[in-house]
Amino acid sequence: MGIAERREREKAELRDTILAAARRIFLEEGPEALTMRRIADAIEYSPGTIYLYFESREQIALQLVREGFEKLVAALGPAVSGVEDPVERIRAIGTAYTEFGLNDPETYKLIFMENAKYVYAALSPQSGDAGEIEAGDRAFDFIASAVAQAVEAGAFKPVEPQLAAEAFWAGLHGALSLHITCPAMIGDIRALAVLVQDSMIAGLRA
Questions:
Q1: How far is residue 170's CA from residue 80's CA, in Å, rounded to a whole number?
Q2: DSSP string, 72-106
Q3: Are residues 169 and 94 in the same domain?
Q4: How many CB atoms lie within 10 A of CB 77?
Q5: Beta carbons within 10 angstroms of residue 16's beta carbon
């Protein structure tokens, strides 16, 4: 390995170290604790070193959100592969989304629960970062496109697909967030998630 390659690897490793420390601080101490100095202290570097990789704590938070959405996309993709019927695809998406939240609650909390302003910025054109926008859009498009296809196929009433997709997401998110924050209040979360999506599907049936 040449000197240039070694330096690039070391830079990538330090960047990953910065993000890992930021993730721990974000989740364990809250978004307001996520400062450049706090991250620098955690990895035993100077704050100036952090600024060589990220311009601000907001940029770091947005990167964490983007990576969280990428994980969600990676979980949803295999679930819908080969599922042609749009209603069954919706069921598969709901199951995969639920399992994602249960298997990786820290990432779920980071992108959907810990601080809404970072999530909103990651999904908003005003953020000015196509990477964040695209990551969030791809995650939501799994359900939105399936709903649109169900409407086109006549399986669903002629509802507005975006609104119906938001309703699906809101219902599943409500169940998952209650389970993550107050697990004693929810009995069988998987059964509840299935009931939520089956109820919505039944209500949209043509």
A1: 20
A2: HHHHHHHHHTT--SHHHHHHHHHHHHHHHHHH-HH
A3: yes
A4: 12
A5: 10
State whether 110 and 197 are in the same domain: yes
On whether both 66 and 40 belong to a single domain, the answer is: no
**CA distances (Å), origin 194, targets 40, 91, 164:** 44, 8, 17
- Contacts of residue 165, defined as CB under 8 A and 6 or more positions apart, other chains included, come to 140, 143, 144, 146, 147
Same domain (yes/no): 43, 82: no
Both tokens of residue 152?
A: 């086109």
Domain coverage including residue 118: 62-204
Number of domains in the chain: 2
Q: Indicate if 76 and 135 belong to the same structural domain.
A: yes
Answer yes or no: do 47 and 95 share one domain. Answer: no
* pLDDT for res 36: 93
Residue segments in the chain with a per-residue pLDDT below the cut of 70: 1, 114-133
Q: How big is the chain by its Cα radius of gyration, in Å? A: 20
Q: What is the pLDDT of residue 50?
A: 93
| 194, 176 contact by CB (below 8 A) | no
